[in-house]
Design brief:
Layout: H1 2-19, H2 27-32, H3 47-71
Helix pairs in contact: 1-3
Length: 72
């Protein structure tokens, strides 16, 4: 039962992480230091906020279910 829950949470977590927006628009700018907006505190709104919170919830669920399975 818990293994099935862990499987579903894992698949959902992978999917929601892949849906997240790319904050680094130019990978070359990261290496050279040209991307000034990378570490700025930008406020998430709408779908980005939902995806961010869903990632947090699914991550906590994954951790909890994994720990329970380890202890059993």
């Amino acid at each position: 039962m818990l293994e099935n829950i862990l499987l579903v949470v894992s698949v959902l977590l992978i999917a929601i992480v892949l849906l997240q927006g790319n904050k680094a628009t130019d990978s070359n700018g990261i290496i050279t230091g040209g991307n000034q907006e990378l570490f700025q505190n930008l406020k998430e709104r709408g779908v980005e906020l939902f995806i961010s919170r869903a990632t947090l919830v699914l991550g906590v669920l994954f951790l909890g279910v994994s720990l329970i399975l380890f202890l059993i």
